[in-house]
Amino acid sequence: MNASFVQLAYLVATGLFVFSLHWMNDPKTARRGVGAGVLAMLIAVLATWAQPVVVHHLWIIVAIALGFAVGWPLSQVPLTAVPQRTALSHAFGGLAAGLVGTAKFYLWYREGPENLTAFVMIAIIAEIILGYLTFTGSLMAAGKLQEVKWIPQRPVTYPGQNLMNIGLLVIALAVGVALIVNPTASWAPAVFPVIIGLALLFGVLLIIPIGGADMPTVIAILNAYAGLSAVAMGFVLDNKLLITAGALDGSSGLILSIIMCKAMNRSFTNVLFGAFGQVQQQKAGAEAQVYKPETPESAAQIMEQASLVVIIPGYGMAVAQAQHKIRELYDLLKKRHIDVKFAIHPVAGRMPGHMNVLLAEAEIPYTDLVEMDDINGDMPQCDVALVVGANDVVNPAARYDQSSPIYGMPIIDADKARTIFAIKRSKNPGFAGIDNELYFSEKTWMLFGDAKKVIGDLVKNLSDGSGMH
Amino acid sequence: MSRRGNRWLSLPLLVASVSLAVTAAAAAAQEGEAAAAHAVNVDYWPLLFVFVLASFIGLGVIRRVSRLLHTPLMSITNAISAIAVVGSIIVAGSDYPTEIRIIGAVALFASMTNIVSGFLITDRMLKMFKTDEGDHK
After folding, report:
1. Which listed residue, of A99, A279, A297, A424, carries a Cα 20 to 30 Å from A50's Cα?
2. Whether A332 and A380 share a structural domain
3. Same domain flag for A209 and A104
């Protein structure tokens, strides 16, 4: 296949990729986006494969078959495990970029040192540093999300941590510069693995001080890194399709990181170097506050009288597998002509948009999933706010308590509702280790117990009630 | 309060632009030497243009993506960036030394896994998004 034909195929693929993302702007057209993406991928792969330089086919077929064998099960994971899967795929993306950069360097060192221009060397160094650090960093993130035993969930910190991390990166960059200046030196092939090793180590060290609450941001940042490593690979291979696709991926990661950071009122540097998520020291002498427990029976009665019920789900809902019970509750309330909305905080769940997917799986219409900014105006008119497994995202302390670690974070105004019911498994603080004063408000009633069971009880009471009327 | 966040967020962009500028400068400096040595030289300027323009397109298109769909968005961009597979195909399939081709085949496997799982799971998630009227999508 001649070169212009390949370039034409790449051009078509580039256009299709842009359309693919464009169609993601609406759930109605989004599946068309997947179709466009698959088509573009197919065109690009076939055009590449058909080039005359590709003479060995067996390994390609084997690698593709293995990719299918591993990729298919990874696409069938439960939706609660989607964040881990995503982190894992960032790891694979980083690994692929790192490996291709490595292969190209050694190949050109031996068989075409004239290819190792300063520009190509800069791109190769960027590609392998980004690629390998994304690889180990994403593996660590996936491990933390999967709650693998030997990876600590709580942030690991030690004195001089940031200094050490930055030091490592500086050493890697310094070695990189040495290679860029002398790409064909006799010591170059020996020094190259040093950079790989440092990047791999840096990826691990970058993630261990980051706590569970920051995982949505971390995944988004790693997404940006994976995209940038693909861009660097495009520079190395002189391939504009790769640069475009990598830039699309990178900008997606960047935008999602910005949204996540804003939703937590944090900065990148703060997420990466702040070691959030440690248990806060409780203020000594804080007065013992008491929860007001309530039974599902009375809660159901109050809900029946409501005209607007806003459900505020958090990751605890998914842990308790309560989504489908919530759907039953939603149906029962809707049947009584009660308006039911879901208030979705951007960091609800463990990756950007995670909560929407979890609720969509329970067949809750996406038109009733409302973003934080859009629902907050309606909260004063809300009769009942039902908090299910959410904690920090409804903590009013974020508005004024400057000593709180979540100070300044935008929250869902659950406290403005007329009545608040909060379902909570135990009296322990939430994911970020912060106590929540919403639970002690005079309008708040606690429903203690497993979310699935409590909602089940609510559903039972509501359906019994309808029998009596 | 978010303004402070924004300033910090622009840091990576700044770093990216500076490194781009340095790259360009270094490459320009090297151009002279390379020309003298009759070396093969990638014409890097078009690549940098493509990168910058594609980033702007990406920022524009992705800002409009529905917030409902951010999880599927991440899966699909992941699958799309696995277009790195075209690089791996060349490395694994060309007449290169065996060690190099092994590295290429491993990279090909990694990218292929992302393509398959990325597109499939995106579609699986998108199928779940329905409206009240029981969309038959």
Report:
1. A99
2. yes
3. yes
Residues 6+ apart with CB under 8 A from A139: A87, A88, A91, A203
Compute the distance between CA of residue A266 and CA of residue B55 in angstroms, rounded to an integer.
Answer: 24
**Record: contact A100-B88, CB cut-off 8 A:** yes
Give residue A127's domain range: 86-273
Q: Does residue A392 carry a catalytic annotation?
A: yes
Contact A21 B80 (CB under 8 A): yes
At residue B37 the predicted structure's pLDDT band, cuts being 50, 70 and 90, is very low
Total number of domains in chain A? 3
Q: Are residues A114 and A94 in the same domain?
A: yes
Of these residues, A214, A249, A392, A457, which one is catalytic?
A: A392
Q: Among partner residues B5, B73, B88, which is closest to A261 by beta-carbon distance?
A: B5
Scan residues 98-117 of B and list those with Cβ closer than 8 Å to A.
Answer: 99-101, 103-117
pLDDT at residue B137, rounded to an integer: 40
Q: Please indicate, yes or no, whether residues A193 and A213 belong to a single structural domain of this protein.
A: yes
Q: What pLDDT is stored for residue A27 in this prediction?
A: 92
Does A13 reach chain B within 8 Å, measured CB to CB? yes
Residues A62 and A140 in one domain: no
Q: Is any Cβ of chain B less than 8 angstroms from the Cβ of A253?
A: yes
Q: A452 Cβ partners below 8 Å, 6+ apart?
A: A320, A321, A322, A325
Are A233 and A92 in a shared domain?
Answer: yes
pLDDT of B51-82, one tens digit each? Answer: 999 999 999 999 999 889 999 999 999 999 99
Tokens of B116: 């398959």
- Which of A42, A76, A110 corresponds to the end of one domain? A76
Has residue A53 been placed in a domain?
yes
CA angle A203, A194, B113 (to 5 degrees): 50
Binary contact (B78, A89; C-beta < 8 A): yes
Q: pLDDT class for B131, splitting at 50, 70, 90?
A: confident
User: What residues are paired with A251 via a beta bridge?
Assistant: none
ipTM over 0.85: yes
Interface test with A, best of B18, B55, B83 (most A CBs within 10 A): B83
Averaged over successive runs of 10 residues, the pLDDT of chain A (469 residues) comes to 86 95 93 96 94 92 96 94 94 96 94 88 95 95 87 78 86 92 89 95 89 84 93 93 94 92 81 54 50 86 91 90 92 92 91 93 93 91 91 87 83 92 74 70 88 91 66
Q: For residue A111, is it within any domain?
A: yes
Listed residues A19, A45, A76: the one ending a domain? A76
Do residue A370 and residue A300 come from a single domain?
yes
**Contact between A231 and A246 (Cβ < 8 Å):** yes
Asked if residue A251 lies in contact with residue A227, where contact means CB atoms within 8 angstroms, the answer is yes
- Same domain for A189 and A123: yes
Q: What is the CATH number of the domain that holds A327?
A: 3.40.50.1220
Q: How many CB atoms lie within 10 A of CB A63?
A: 25
Q: Which chain B residues are closer than 8 Å to A53 by Cβ?
A: 90, 93-95
- Residue A47 identity (one-letter amino acid): A
